[in-house]
Design brief:
Blueprint lengths: L1 E6 L4 E5 L7 E5 L1 E9 L1 E6 L2 E6 L3 E5 L4 E6 L4 E8 H6 L4 H8 L3 E3 L9 H9 L4 H12 L2 E3 L14 H15 L6 H7 L4 H12 L3 H19 L4 H7 L5 H12 L3 H8 L6
Parallel strand pairs: 1-3
Antiparallel strand pairs: 2-9, 4-7, 4-9, 5-6, 5-8, 7-10, 10-11
């Protein structure tokens, strides 16, 4: 299955009846919500198959590789994407925010009619509203977090490879604010650096460096919109060694400067 590069959707919503299996695995920068009105779908999310049933809502960050691989007949679902900066500035539990950045699967128990999802889609396509944002925040407050455990192996990955990849991903999630490199990341999984890089890219579809950078940029975005720290302080607090490197990577990822990003999204005014 083909893996495609990052896409950007912004705030979008649509009802799919039926959704269609995808012939590619993709990434995007938004947080994605899926709600099943009837039927069911199976996702390949971070290389683990996950089923979503009628009345269930699942939420995940679109950065990790994912794809719809099968759909039950008669399925109807809602697909909603929300910009990550909005979610980071909401007063949701820290563990939920961290779980999303860590690529974990967040969900609600199957409970038909709990969420006015059809109305959300209508409002999104009408430009959104303050009430919509409050309802989405309430939805995030109810989420539960399911730990991600990859398969033991596949026909294309050496036995135990998934476990090694998970150890590297976990190490990066826990240490991204520090000055860590490939050697330290590979060591966490007891692998040779070159082998570690190849294995991670094969399993995740991105390089170790890119995955580490995503954590750092997401953290920087959160600090920009929720604190009054100076930009140079945020750069260092997010794991970047220099301000120029931070600006370069941030602008490439968000298509705007940290200063403009803060002005657009901040809930606390800049100093």
């Amino acid at each position: 299955m083909k893996i495609v590069r990052y896409e950007r959707f912004g705030l979008q919503g649509m009802v799919l009846s039926p959704p269609r299996p995808m012939d590619r695995i993709h990434h995007h920068t938004e947080v994605e919500l899926n709600y099943i009105f009837r039927g069911g779908i199976t996702y390949l999310h971070q290389w683990k198959y996950r089923k979503v049933a009628t009345g269930q809502l699942v939420v995940f960050w679109g950065s990790p590789p994912h794809s719809v691989v099968s759909v039950l007949p008669g399925t109807e679902m809602a697909w909603i994407t929300v910009p990550l900066p909005w979610v980071l500035q909401w007063p949701i539990p820290a563990r939920t925010r961290e779980a999303l950045i860590d690529g974990r699967w967040c969900f609600s128990k199957a409970c038909p009619n709990r969420y006015p999802v059809r109305e959300w889609v209508v409002e999104i396509n009408g430009g959104g509203s303050e009430a919509l944002m409050l309802e989405l925040q309430a939805c995030f407050l109810r989420l539960k977090i399911r730990g991600y455990k990859p398969p033991n192996h596949s026909t294309e990955t050496p036995a135990g490879g998934w476990n090694k990849v998970e150890k590297m991903a976990r190490y990066m999630a826990e240490h991204f604010v520090h000055d860590i490199g490939i050697d330290e990341i590979a060591s966490a999984a007891k692998l040779h650096p070159k082998y570690a890089m190849n294995l991670f890219r094969k399993c995740y579809g991105v390089t170790l460096h890119n995955y580490l950078e995503r954590h750092r940029l997401a953290h920087a975005q959160r600090l920009l919109i929720t604190t009054v720290f100076k930009i140079i302080e945020i750069a260092h607090a997010s794991g970047f060694n220099s301000l120029s490197a931070f600006y370069n990577r941030f602008e490439k990822h968000t298509a705007c400067s940290p200063k403009v990003f803060r002005k657009r999204h901040a809930v606390i005014g800049p100093p």
